[in-house]
Design brief:
- The chain is an alpha+beta fold and 201 residues long.
- The strands form 2 sheets. The chain has a 5-stranded antiparallel sheet with strand order 8-7-6-5-9. Strands 1-2-3-4 form a 4-stranded antiparallel sheet.
- A hairpin with a 2-residue loop joins strand 2 and strand 3.
- The two termini are 34 Å apart.
């Protein structure tokens, strides 16, 4: 379940002196508060969506939204109002940006590592590969290396989602089919994206 919505935080309080209240018509001052509205996701502010200005007459205690007041008071308030947007209201975007940057870096680093793994196979390396059935995927594991030959055992199972291939990568699923390929053949399969991921402990 996704929790999202809008909220607000108080940005500034102050006094607006020497104004005429449109309700009680007294020459008085008004207390004002500026609230910043923001959208949140899981209670973390994601981005700002505007401000609310509320003023209260210090004589009759009537409250007004800024747009309900005469233009003269609105102009006076313009010199007092809060400017700028708190960084806090962007904190969710900052977190999302950091997460995206982290996964981008991790993905790029993994691809660099794979380029080394395919050239120098190790016992236990797991190759994610396309299965014979269209849209299906499976894995094969390096069991032995002799010279230029890499001996592999194939996973007994296939899955129809690349992102879920980890679910079948279990040691007890490698029992039957064996094969041997040269390092050059493995490199070719990787370049052709028949091998699309390499995991090494």
């Amino acid at each position: 379940m996704i929790f999202y919505g809008t909220n607000s935080s108080r940005l500034k309080d102050g006094q607006l002196p020497n104004v005429t209240c449109p309700n009680c018509e007294n020459q008085t001052s008004m207390t004002y508060s500026v609230f910043g509205k923001y959208a949140y996701l899981y209670w973390i502010p994601v981005f700002p969506i505007g401000k609310i200005n509320v003023l209260e007459c210090n004589s009759c205690k009537r409250t007004f939204k800024l747009q309900e007041l005469p233009e003269q008071i609105q102009r006076k308030f313009e010199t007092e109002k809060h400017t700028g947007i708190p960084f806090l209201h962007f904190s969710g975007l900052a977190v999302i940006g950091l997460v995206i940057a982290y996964f981008s870096y991790s993905g790029a680093k993994h691809k660099e590592d794979e380029a080394d793994y395919i050239k120098t196979p190790n016992i236990g390396d797991v190759y994610s590969i396309k299965a014979e059935a269209a849209g299906h995927f499976t894995t094969m594991k390096v069991t032995k290396i002799e010279g230029d030959s890499v001996f592999l055992v194939f996973n007994d199972y296939e899955i129809d989602k690349r992102s879920a291939i980890y679910k079948i990568d279990k040691s007890n699923n490698y029992t039957n089919s064996n094969d041997a390929l040269t390092k050059e053949q493995l490199q070719f399969l990787y370049e052709e994206k028949e091998i699309f991921n390499i995991d090494r402990d």
